[in-house]
Write a structure and sequence with these properties.
By secondary structure, the protein is α/β, with parallel strands linked by helices. Helices cover 34% and strands 23% of the residues. It starts with a strand and ends with a helix. α12 packs parallel to α13. It is built from 16 helices and 22 strands. It is globular. The longest helix has 16 residues. The structure holds adenosine-5'-triphosphate (ATP) and magnesium ion. The site of magnesium ion (MG) has 5 residues, from α4.
């Protein structure tokens, strides 16, 4: 973290120092709410939850070297006491950004692909200077400020994933970390149950474009009409990208796929360069163009952007991870991290590509948070599995049964497994050497199936 004294922290978060706190004590980081991760010089953030009270863990945090607690009541040791810890954490993060004049903040939102794109952007920015980005999925009002607090005096780029479960969420995240470069990937139907409509989701995502000041950059997906329309709410310079439209300032031409890895010619306002992506899936071509648009705005030459895109990998697991089991040559596409209708469609397109010329099996499960569209969306996934060329669809859990119904209606062989163990047993029984197997569902629901295949990798 940017080094601050307890007095400075108390002022920034509107708190008061209690206990034997020396106002001049310097906090050098890390900022942690898990006492097991507390470390020398750190600040321990104590939340009061339903089941546990973080303040009870203050002694362990002090033991590990934390110099103070940020909490809502006094503890036996130095503390900054505030009325609301989450708000205070956000204000502390904002102070970190305000004290970092040389920092470029890049924010990514969208219904699908935030983490994948964030991981690529982070690897691109690392080529330009010291970069901080979250590991995995820390994209909400709790996770984001922790990531921001990792910025230190050397950091030049901060890449953030910004998720929205409602109107105002992204605006709040942008108050914590004002973005210089905003990237909006797509507006799909993820979380539609909470929002009500895709238009409402678009309003929530547009808060990122609206937060960019004059002089900043807004990178918009020109292939998504709701995203392209966000140009009207932005004060920054708008750059659109497209996988096909030659009029978009950043676009691709001559795409070709080899076992799901795309090659294309990248066109940017500064010139063209051939790209071969290291990551799998057609959707990653779109994400890569968003990354290229950012690279261009950050002053990278097309050839350097292309070289970076040829090396950047998926860092956060379970996202189009492709591996082949040596024992029987079964190729697994582990895209089990999470699912929504758009990402199911993208993953099934990936199955077609990766499994070209081979028997294809899809192990698919429930997509959560779809509200009224649930039944139709699951049936549509079944239909898309058939269209993708799956010969066998194994559906995990009875709640996802409509996927099987949709696939069966298209003449595909289907099985419905009661749980993941049954799905594993069915897969062992029904898969054949050389198959390509896609695994995907909402969070947790197929992770064990993927882990099983990974554990039997060799
Ligand atoms: P979450 O809302 O869970 O944080 P996310 O937006 O971070 O999701 P990722 O974790 O990057 O998204 O990807 C989730 C899945 O979405 C991937 O497994 C992939 O199948 C799909 N996906 C990624 N990018 C796109 C895209 N541009 N369009 C459609 N689907 C995509
Ligand atoms: Mg994510």
């Amino acid at each position: 973290m940017i080094v601050m004294t307890l007095a400075e922290i108390a002022e920034a978060v509107g708190g008061r120092l209690t206990g034997p706190a020396d106002p001049g004590t310097r906090v050098t980081g890390p900022v942690e709410h898990d006492s097991r991760k507390a470390a020398p010089g750190g600040l321990f953030v104590a939340f009061t939850g339903e089941n546990a009270d973080g303040h009870d863990y203050a002694p362990q945090a002090f033991e590990a070297g934390a110099v103070a607690v940020l909490g809502s009541r006094e503890v036996d040791g130095p503390a900054v006491v505030v009325p609301d810890v989450l708000t205070a954490l956000g204000r502390l993060a904002r102070e970190v950004v305000d004290r970092s004049p040389d920092l470029t903040v890049v924010g990514v939102t969208g219904s699908s692909g935030k983490t994948s794109t964030k991981d690529m952007l982070a690897q691109l920015c690392e080529r330009l200077g010291p970069t901080v980005a979250p590991e995995g999925n820390l994209n909400n009002e709790l996770g984001l400020p922790y990531t921001v607090c990792r910025v230190d005096a050397d950091t030049r780029y901060l890449v953030l994933e910004m998720g929205a479960r409602g109107i105002g969420h992204i605006a709040y995240l942008c108050d914590i970390a004002p973005v210089d470069v905003a990237v909006v990937l797509n507006v799909g139907t993820a979380h539609i149950g909470e929002f009500g409509s895709a238009d409402a989701i678009a309003v929530a995502k547009s808060e990122l474009a609206a937060a960019v000041p004059a002089g900043g950059t807004v990178v918009l997906n020109g292939d998504d009409a709701r995203v392209a329309a966000m140009a009207s709410v932005s004060r920054g310079d708008v750059v659109t990208y497209s996988t096909s439209d030659p009029d978009a300032p950043v676009h691709a031409s001559d795409p070709e796929s080899q076992e799901g890895r795309f090659s294309f010619t990248l066109h940017t306002p500064s010139g063209d360069a051939p790209v071969r992506l290291a990551v799998h899936g057609a959707h990653q071509m779109s994400n890569a163009l968003a990354v290229a648009a950012v690279g261009d705005r950050l002053g990278m030459a097309p050839g350097d952007i292309a070289a970076a895109l040829g090396e950047v990998r998926a860092r956060s697991g379970r996202r189009m991870d492709v591996f082949t089991r040596e024992s029987d040559g079964i190729t697994v596409i582990d895209d089990s991290y999470n699912a929504n209708p758009a990402s199911m469609a993208a993953a099934l397109a990936g199955l077609t590509e990766v499994g070209r010329g081979r028997r294809k099996v899809a192990v698919l499960g429930y997509m959560a948070e779809l509200g009224d569209s649930e039944t139709a969306a699951h049936e549509e996934v079944g239909r898309l599995a058939a269209e993708a060329g799956a010969e066998l669809v194994i559906v995990v859990e009875a709640v996802a049964e409509r996927i099987a119904a949709g696939a069966a209606a298209c003449g595909v062989a289907t099985e419905v497994a009661a749980d993941q163990d049954e799905a594993i047993a069915l897969l062992d029984e029904l898969s054949r050497p050389g198959d390509t197997v896609l695994i995907k569902a909402s969070r947790y629901r197929t992770w064990r199936v993927a882990d099983y295949l990974r554990s039997t990798h060799t």
